[in-house]
Amino acid sequence: MFDNLSNRLEAIYKKLKGRGKLKEADVDEALREIRVALIEADVSLPVIKDFLAGVREKSIGQEVLKSLTPGHQMVKIVNDELEQLLGGEVSDIKFSDQPPTIILMVGLQGSGKTTTVGKLARKFKKEGKNCLLVPADVYRPAAIEQLNVLGRDLEIDVYQAGDNKDPVSICAKAVKQARDEMRTAVILDTAGRQHIDDALMDEIKAIKKKIEPHEVLFVADSMMGQEAVNVSKAFHDAVGIDGVVLTKMDGDARGGAALSIKSVTGQPIKYIGTGEKLDALEPFHPDRIVSRILGMGDVMTLVDKAQDTYELEQQEELEKKLKKNAFDLEDFRDQLQQIRKMGNIQDLLSMVPGAGKMMKGIKVDDGAFVRIEAIINSMTPHERTHHNVINGSRKKRIANGSGTTVSEINKLMKQFSQMKKMMKKMSSGNSRGFNLGSLMGGRGGMSPF
Fold first, then answer.
1. N or C terminus of the chain with fewer C-beta within 10 Å?
2. 91-127 b/e (C-beta count within 10 Å ≥ 16 → b)
3. What is residue 166's three-state secondary structure?
4. Is it the case that residue 62 has pLDDT exceeding 70?
């Protein structure tokens, strides 16, 4: 996400940092280039105007023009202004002291609303919250079945409306059931349309008036750019929303919707969807997003993903093995599987500071991880725990069993040996901090390219 904007801003910042002193004309030149970058990112023109005015006001002050590092100072100002543009702070769903917390999901058809209901439900379940999902879209073919399938997959209850085709009645009865069953939350999936119309708005208004939700979340497709911003404003003006979920952010190289929506609607982005899988939902952290935009990575989100994936017991067991220098190919395979659970490898690497520049133009081959697993799975248990016994004839057997070549096995064995040496040196420190990096192509780690 934000690739285009990141590349443009990186070039502008490099030019700024290379100058010893900045004149007012230098600031204006940089702002003109930033303006072009934001226009190309499909940011709303009024938002761009206000943003640049704020940056210029702070940049032409004495603390910048007379600073020993004026270029760096201006970059920091842009960083701070971008954070404010995105909302400044994390805005999560506030759960009611008197359950259930009622969450009303609204948006256009095709925005990913029903899938987002599933993602939120999965998140809440992991937090120990007991949810009820409500299919209130009685118009779209298979909408109710889609939510029922998600509920079965997640093992989360879905309200059964039977022959009831009145969305207002369905929502009211579902909320009553959730209250009677002492549910923590009830999430209502309402109908969308291809475009905004009065019937849609009237239906949502009627539902909102009847059930009095604690949160109205507007789900927007970030790939729509400015149109997503315009639609979100229309929904807010007509119905009143409390926050936004931006979907398909993993495919949005521009980022105009994310950069405009808070300023235009006055409502915060609460979550972003970063993939099709149900675990691909992230809380929206303005500071982390700005860090990604400026090419500085996003270590905190990477840590959060790792903590969600790695069990404490697994970490402790790994630490013991590292201290005994007993890390073997079975452990390596298990670590590899944990990393793959965290998401797309290319996306994970983009969160590592500096990796974006090093990886520019290079595509990570996720299939390489599959081949490594196949090689290890084709070994005997003894070979996995005693890799030094693997000789030429064993390599040929493993290659035949895994559908790979002896040269690929040689490469794996060489890199694994290098990695073991590195881990032995580092095991006296904090092993939790390096097992992930070493497996993702760090020095001596497996390189999946």
1. C
2. bebebeeebbbbbbbbbbeebbbbbbbbbbbbbbbee
3. coil
4. no
Query: Residue 325 region, left (φ>0) first, then alpha (ψ -120 to 50), else beta?
Result: left
Pick one of 3.30.457.10, 1.10.3720.10, 3.40.50.300, 3.30.565.10 as the CATH number of 101-296: 3.40.50.300
The reply to whether the predicted model has a pTM over 0.70 is: no
| Alpha carbons 170 and 166: distance in angstroms, whole number | 6
Instruction: Please identify which residue in the block is written with the tokens 């990393």.
Output: 339
Dihedral sign for Cα atoms in the order 143, 112, 192, 123: positive
Q: Which CATH number fits domain 3-85: 3.10.590.10, 2.160.20.10, 1.20.1250.10, 1.20.120.140?
A: 1.20.120.140
Q: Give the pair of three-digit tokens for residue 99.
A: 């359950």
131, 156 Cβ separation under 8 angstroms:
yes
Per the DSSP assignment, residues forming a β-bridge with 132 are 157, 186
d(CA 275, CA 278): 8
Angle 37-228-200 (CA atoms, 0-180°, nearest 5)?
170
Q: How far, in whole angstroms, is CA 226 from its chain's centroid? A: 21
Q: Which of 379, 358, 319 is nearest to 447 (CA)?
A: 358
Q: What is the pLDDT of residue 405?
A: 92
Over residues 311-347, the pLDDT tens digits come to 555 556 656 665 666 678 887 777 777 666 665 555 5
Q: Fold for domain 302-439?
A: 434 Repressor (Amino-terminal Domain) (1.10.260)
Contact 408, 435 (CB under 8 A): no
Q: Are 415 and 445 in contact (CB under 8 A)?
A: yes
Count, residues in the chain: 449
**At residue 137, what is the residue type?**
D
Q: Is the pLDDT of residue 298 over 70?
A: no
Q: Where are the domains of the chain?
A: 3-85, 101-296, 302-439
Does residue 355 have a pLDDT over 50? Answer: no
